[in-house]
Amino acid sequence: MSIPCYPDFVPISFELQSDIQPLLFQLSDGVSEYTFANLYLFRKRYQYHISMNEDCLILSGERDGKRFFMTPWGIPKREVLIGLFETHNYWKGISDSALTSNQAELDQWKITVIEDRDNFDYLYLRTDLAELSGKKYHKKRNLVNAFLNTYAYETRALTEEVIPQAMEVLEQWRKDKGEEGDYNAAKEALELFPALGMQGALYYINGKPGGWCLGEPLVQGSMFAIHFEKGIDEYKGIYQFMNQTFAASLGNEITHINREQDMGDEGLRQAKMTYRPSGFVRKYLGYYTNAPSL
Asked: Which end of the chain is less enclosed by CB atoms within 10 A, N or C?
């Protein structure tokens, strides 16, 4: 199967991985949604479909009853862009580089672009998370030290052999939270991560599986996105421990860690800010002034 030419779309499928993955890996902004693994794992939640217009990848999805489109690899010609607005409510995931290089044209075409703060990805220097040095990380460092003084731990690379134990953690995580969250995507990620090009770690606490994280490299291997991080709440400090330990395990070629967005959750926003992000992967929404009502 190959990606059809616009205006035809097909659902995201595993058969398209070899066409999509190399294109997205070359992107320079580091938008966490723009990986094959992310698109595939959330294909059901957002009803992702894909098309191609010349050298421009086009994604179509749906959220809360509204249809949106995304253009990870550049911006299509005006007639294509206006055509997309005729069948979609808004344009999502516009990157900084796309906006900067096309701002004049978008203004001329009467397309309004606004910041999508709830979907900014949080960026951290890998060395900051790995070392937790200085005053600003005093509380985090104390939590990690308390964890290390309380529990015996073992770290293992996430492999197919330990997936059943990682699943145990995921089931307990769902029970602790009392809600589904991203359970379905996380479960499928564990089942398929080798084929999706993802990597991670499983952490044993006092001899039992206690937490795991899973992600993948972006931006030609200079950034690493943490897509999933699941821990059992009874182990106080488990998330701070995993955050620090996994960052320390990554190679020096990884300069930044992308810990994705807060989705407008104020508690999650505060938690992400306490790690002192070095910056954000900014994203924008686009609306067409003359678009028909859908």
From this structure: N
DSSP state of 85: H
Determine the Cα–Cα distance for residues 62 and 240; give it in Å rounded to an integer.
34
CATH of the domain at 114: 3.40.630.30
How many other CB atoms are there within 10 angstroms of residue 253's CB atom? 12
pLDDT tens, residue by residue, 86-103: 999 999 999 999 999 999
CA pair distance 62, 171, nearest whole angstrom: 28
Pairing mode, strands 111-115 and 208-218: unpaired
- In sequence order, the β-bridge partners of residue 257 are 124, 224
Residue with tokens 């508690």: 267
What is the rounded CA–CA span in Å between residue 95 and residue 147? 38
Q: Please, what's the largest Cα pairwise distance for the chain?
A: 62
Domain count within the chain? 2
What is the pTM for the complete model shown?
Answer: 0.96
pLDDT per residue as tens digits for the range 12-41: 999 999 999 999 999 999 999 999 999 999
- What string of DSSP letters covers 141-160? HHHHHHHHHH--EEEEE--G
Helices 163-177 and 183-196: angle between axes, nearest 10 degrees: 160
The answer to whether residues 252 and 236 belong to one domain is: yes
